[in-house]
Give the backbone structure.
Amino acid sequence: MTGRLQETFKKIRGKGKVTETDVNDMMREVRLALLEADVNFKVVKDFVSRVKERAVGQEVFKSLTPGQQVIKVVNEELTQVLGGTQSKLILAPKPPTIIMMVGLQGAGKTTHTGKLAKYLIKQNKQPLLVAADIYRPAAIKQLEVLGEQLQVPVFSMGTEASPVEIAKKGVAYAKEQHRDIVLIDTAGRLHIDNQLMDELLNIREAVNPTEIMLVVDAMTGQDAVNVAQSFNETLDITGVILTKLDGDTRGGAAISVKAVTGCPIKFVGMGEKLDLLEPFYPDRMASRILGMGDVLTLIEKAQEAVDEEKARELQKKIRKAEFTFEDFLDQMEQLKKMGPLEDILGMLPGANKVKGLKDIKVDDKQLGRVEAIVRSMTKHEKQHPEILNASRRRRIATGSGTTIQDVNRLLKQFEDMKKMMKQFSTMKKGKKNKGFKFPFM
């Protein structure tokens, strides 16, 4: 969708004067791009109508060309469709806050119960996980494994007790243990049925949750919207967690859910790891969809992952050309904490227009090989790679399960990187650098 919209905007961006025909032509392309992305038809119709109304004959800001003004209108309207402003998690005035997790089987409900717990731990909260899914094989075990990984207690009564009883006793246990958040993992079904909804209604009546979070799979497109609508009509859900957004190449569910149900998207799952759950910001998502990047999220990720003191030390080393393989490993670790490299590149404004970056796919296996090679070196070798003769290189290749050619390639690229860093730190006006390719690109 981003590619289609970018092509459309390219035609209008530099125009000194934009006619009604120009706007109509552009909105025809935008309509097609949105429909192809599986956005709800009514949402597309309303969106196009509002943009046309605002874009035609609107007074143009002095700082913008008419073409830029139209794009600004599209961005603002798309932000509104996505929810306008960020919807934060509601916390109960008196703990514990009870969050009921609901959704169909296979949407990632149990996993995202764990992810939400991890997010809340970062906010200095003390969550309790309640295993109320007694039907799906291994659901309780899965939640217990997640609890162990997060060092969070899990309340379970096995598969014999009723889900309503488990939920009530789980909340009572949380109060005894002074846990300020209760996350109830309820049962899902392969499809919506009356039995599922009745059970969820009974749990809702029994524990009076602060939040009812619906977990939906973004990759199911229009079906995700239909599921959200059905759950909302019965349960009055308070928020949506959109999972597998990293695998949703079309983006239709993200645009349609809020507009159709009126229920805000509060979080998005951006990968399999437990820390890959992000708060949903409509303005940032609109910028990403329109190919304008998402610098704020990138900065936040960097602030979380990067150790400032280490960064200052690294800066000094780069200036003195003392960058070692130990520093390189440290940088790799910090980069991995920020998430998949493709996602990071996607947050850079205009990255999709840069040749080579648009369709980049980082090979995780290649990253692993690079790490294995460096970890097979002794401490002295990491600090002084110039001592790596043929026999040492053979030993490193054997120890890392790679070839001597792989080791030689990495050493050559590392030397090129050091030279490039030195050039950057001593760069004078007009001096140009040769291109450099990272070892994992």
Remarks:
- Residues 353-360, 428-441 have pLDDT under 50 and may be disordered.
